[in-house]
Design brief:
Layout lengths: L1 H10 L15 H17 L5 H27 L6 H33 L4 H5 L1 H31 L1
Keywords: Lipoprotein, Membrane, Transmembrane, Transmembrane helix
Protein name: Myelin and lymphocyte protein
Subcellular location: Membrane
Amino acid sequence: LAMSSATSTASLPSGLAVLTTFPDVLFIPEIIFGGLVWILVASSKVPLPILQGWVMFVSVFCFVMSTTLLCLDICGVHGGSSSWVTLVSGCDKPQGLSPPCAAVLEAYYTYEAGLSTNPLVTAIYRENIAAVVFAFVATLMYVIHKVFSLLRWKSS
């Protein structure tokens, strides 16, 4: 048991060391790109409220989870516990699965909006393109973080 605890302590830094280790450093781009998606989707005028609601829910949820986990890691809440690696792996699961769905939905709506001749729809087309790009970049960050968190969990 001591070896497992020592392994998890080495793989779960605390304090500002969190910002220098991989995959923990991915929290920063997750927060930045996730926040941009959240802002862009919130400011766009989507005629399908259920679509916008789902994309907003996913982006806000992932933004809050990333921010919370980063703050907890910086504060050193894990205390070197091997169970913390399992907890973080479990918390990252929705972040690895939901954003691809939301990004695809946003991309589909943007594609449909690009085909429209309605001036109101085409006016927000560029904003939706930016939301789609940032949604896919944020998704990539979440998935990479998830994969390496699972590898860390497996080795602990």
